[in-house]
Amino acid sequence: MALTREDVLQLLEILRQDEGLREEFRRLLLPPDLPAWMQKMDRWTERMDEWTQKADKWMADTDEWKQRTDERLERMEKWMAETDEWKRETREWQQKTEKRLARMDKRFMRIESTLGELRGAAKETEYRQKALMLFSSLLRHLRDGQHEVAERLREAVRAGKVSPEEELELRRTDLLLLGEVAQDKWEGQTILVVTEILAAVSRADVEGAIRRAMIAQRLGFWALPCVSGERWSQPAVKRWALKQALLCGEDGVLYPSPEADWDAVEQLLAHWQPL
After folding, report:
1. In 3-state terms, what secondary structure has residue 255?
2. Cis? peptide before 31, omega within 30° of 0
3. Of 36, 112, 135, 214, which sees the most CB atoms within 10 A?
4. E strands, the chain, where?
5. Residue 231 CB coordination number (10 Å)
6. 175 Cβ partners below 8 Å, 6+ apart?
7. Considering the entire predicted model, what is its pTM?
8. Could you tell me which of 208, 148, 202 has the C-alpha nearest to residue 174?
9. CA dihedral (257, 206, 128, 116) positive or negative
10. Crossing angle for the helix pair 164-171 and 203-217, nearest 10 degrees?
């Protein structure tokens, strides 16, 4: 039969008054291992609390680490930006420096060229001043041949015997001297010495002297090419020039020497004697 409300209230009152009955009733309703299970639950709850605390600490540490990492990344990005700026400035500085160096190189080249011209001009002036002494053992009655050469050049250009380029080539000669052979076979014969004066003589200078002497020969001169300088770029160049029958000067001394080897000088004159 069904229990009424009064029956339930009466049962509860009996259980409150009878502890033994109440305990027996509890054993019937609850499993026997409930206390042990509850202890396990308590321990598990404690461990969960500990884990939660550790997790909270780990999360806090993670947040702190993340914050530090973000700060480091920001510093790194700033450093990279500064590095890029430094690289850009360095490239600009390098480009400006290279341009300055290029300008300086050009200036130095111009200075060297000017110094070379000044040395050449000084040497030419010195040779003009010392020409009487330098060539006196070879030629007598030495005089400046520029005016006479210029007159013949104008006539030759008008007659078509010499081109304007060849005229300019001969006019660029450093020193043109006229004189008469001092002795022996061709004594008294007028010679035009076509002289190039340089600080250092190169093969190109020798070739230029030969070319200009050949132009002068077409004007009717007995032209003798001469190249002289403080030094020769290579000994081989000087040897080659002597083989080409050039009168060679070095530091104020002529080769072949009119005083020491007149026979060699006559061979040189014979080589350039007009046909």
Report:
1. strand
2. no
3. 135
4. 139-144, 175-181, 190-201, 223-232, 247-250, 253-255
5. 12
6. 124, 127, 128, 131, 193, 195, 196, 197
7. 0.58
8. 208
9. negative
10. 120
3-class DSSP state for residue 130?
helix
Q: What is the pLDDT of residues 15-45, one digit of tens each?
A: 778 777 777 777 776 666 666 767 777 787 8
For the stretch 174-183, pLDDT in tens is 999 999 999 9
> Residue 178 has which token pair?
């006229």
- Here the tokens at position 63 are 């947040």
Residue 204's region, left for phi above 0, alpha for psi from -120 to 50, else beta, is alpha
Which of 209, 212, 141, 147 is CA-nearest to residue 181? 141
**DSSP-derived 3-state class of residue 184:** helix
Rounded Cα gap, residues 210 and 1, in angstroms: 152
**For the range 262-271, what are the long-range contacts, defined as Cβ-Cβ under 8 Å and sequence gap of 24 or more?**
262/183, 262/184, 265/138, 266/184, 266/185, 266/186, 268/224, 269/181, 269/186, 269/191, 269/222, 269/224, 271/245
* Residue 231: strand pairing partners: 200
Q: How many CB atoms lie within 10 A of CB 235?
A: 8
